[in-house]
Amino acid sequence: MRNFRSLNIWKDGIVLVKRIYKLTDCLPYEEKYGLKSQMCRAVVSIPSNIAEGCSRNSETEFKRFLEIAIGSAFELETQLIILSELKFIVKEQLIPILELLNNEQRMINSLISKIKSQ
To answer: What pLDDT is recorded for position 76?
Structure first.
């Protein structure tokens, strides 16, 4: 069993959760059950699946949870782009969050690739 708390991908996932929750607080009330809800679920799924995968005994199971986490990361990226397209946020708000998210995606993908090659 791995210690998820020591993984940078988990720590960065928690940072993303805080950033997305802060960002979605600024959305119109009408989006409470729309994009806001979807984005919060997607971002929470990233570190949650990393943590759950760490509890698994096999590398195959761990990899499967990492794949779910990266899927949630790509879902979140799409939702951020939608926010921008709908003009709910300005590009200046989007860029630093996308940089964080893209870095998280690269780290998860790298760990998946490392597990595959073993």
So the answer is: 98
User: Domain locations in the chain?
Assistant: 4-116
Q: What is the CA radius of gyration of the chain?
A: 15
pLDDT at residue 73, as a whole number: 98
Choose among 2, 6, 80: nearest CA to 38.
Answer: 80
Residue 16: per-residue pLDDT: 98
- Kindly report the CATH number that applies to the domain delimited by 4-116: 1.20.1440.60
Cα(111)–Cα(52) distance, integer angstroms: 15
Distance CA 91, CA 83 (A): 10
Q: Which of 72, 22, 69 is nearest to 42 (CA)?
A: 72
